[in-house]
Structures are given as structure tokens and as C-alpha cells.
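Let us practice reading a record.
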Amino acid sequence: MDIEKKIKGLIKEADIYRTQGLFDEAKTQLDVATTLISKNKNIGNTNKLLGLIRAQKKALKQDIEKVETATRAPEMSQDFQEVVKEQFIFSEDKNKAALEGAVALVQFGQFKRALKDLVPLLEKKDVRFVAAKNILRCYIALDSVEIARETYSKWCSDNKFTEEELGQLDAFLSKHIKEKNAKKNAENKRHPDLNVDTKRPVNFDMPEVYSVEIQVDEDDVEGNILDFKVISQSGNRIQFLLPSSKLIDSDILKAGNILHEIRCYSQKCLFIGNAVVNSSTKVNTDSADSTEYQVEIEVS
């Protein structure tokens, strides 16, 4: 097969995997495509192919972030859930279209409704394996790890899946449980005395916050953390000062940026949420060598 055609095929496969919620598989295809390009310098459209890979990786990262932060999403009305599904259904095949709609619900945090749509797809051979992975993902997101394990055990006793598929499902389940536990343990180690609230109502009354932490590298559970003392608060709008010593790491605090998994500390609890940067304004300081910015974020 022509090497350029093979690379394009891998990129297309990655896109299909991504739309099905198979993020690990999508990443693998993109990594293979990148390796092939690096080993074949004589390909004419290298820049174009690398551009396609970058676009896919960006879309993949955004989809992963949607799934990872969707646990706090409020339950949508049934009509709105249908609208979400319709926006992300592209296949003309009935089973694949149903899968695309269900995966869209997963990405928007509608796990209970997604499960309702995914379970019947276990009877459809062409989408069964992908549906199964997303079912496990939903249970883990809903903190129903034991149900996820019981569901997998049930699959092991019937004839729906091959031995290879069961092995992959087992690895998938173990990986995601480990990642979930790692995040919880990281929070407990940093702040063992605080009650962590990640499932508050959308219209919650935000308590008085004295400090916020923002993780610079969202892909690393133990990543670099920026800590800021709150200087002003009005409802869910929080203001803090960004000193010059932290400017190197402050690109994520530009106005309009979305912040994921920020930690807000009150006297009695820690709660985790998302936020948008409303503004970042330079303020005068007494020292000519020092610069500070007053940053306002809106927590949701």
C-alpha cells in the first residue's frame, strides 16, 4: 500500500474511533501515523498530513476533556437530549447512528440516558464492543464501579464477546478505575481534612472562598499547581492577584480561557468545578520591577 494512503487511512480510523468514544484507540492510530511520517522523509505532503494529525489530536483532547469534566453536568430535559444526539449523528447506518447519539450523550455528561441507549446496542454485533466500552465508562463516571465490575463479569459468562474482546474490556475497565482512584487519592493526599464536593447542584449557593488552585497541566494528575489567595468574591465570581513570579505559567489565565478541575477552598470544604476567565487586568505596584494582574474567574 502507498505509504501516504496508509497514513491517511490511519487518520480516518482515528477520527472514527474518536466519534465512538474510543479515545485510546484513536490516540494509537495517530501515534502510528506520526511515526510513519517521521520514518518516511520523502513523503510529499508531510506538512499537510501533520496538520491533519494535529487537528485530530486537538479534537481528541477536547473530547476527552468533555468526558472527564462531564460528571457535574445537570440532567437535561429529554427534548434537549434528543437535540444533542441529532447534532452528533452523521452515519446513515441505523446502529452506528444510535451509537454516535449515545456517545454524544456521554460527552455531555448524560450518563443515565446514555446507558439507556447503549444497553440495547449490545444485541447489535457491529457496534457491540464499542457500546460495551461506553457502558463501562458511564458506570465509572456515575461512581458505580461495582456495577461496572458486575456487568463485565456477566459478559464473561455469555457468548457475546470473543476472548480477545473480553481481554480488552478488562484492560479498559482496570485502566479507568485506576485513573479515577488516582485522582481521588491525589485530592485526599493534598487535603485529607476537607470534604470534596464534585456533585453539587448547578444553582448552588457558593460559600465564601479563601483560596483557589489551578492545575497547569490537565493531563497530569500530579501536575504543576498554581495557588492563589482570593481578594474579592461576588457570588460565583472570584478575583485574585497573579504576581510576576507566576507569569511564565499564566497563559491559561488569559481572558476567555476555560479552566477545568479548579479547586475552590472554603473553611469547611473543598469543591471542584470549571471556570471561565472573565478578565485579566494589569495593576500598579510599589516596585518598578514587579508586575501583577488582577484576574477574575466565574465558577460553574
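A brief commentary: The beta strands are 195-197, 211-215, 225-234, 237-243, 258-265, 269-283, 292-299.
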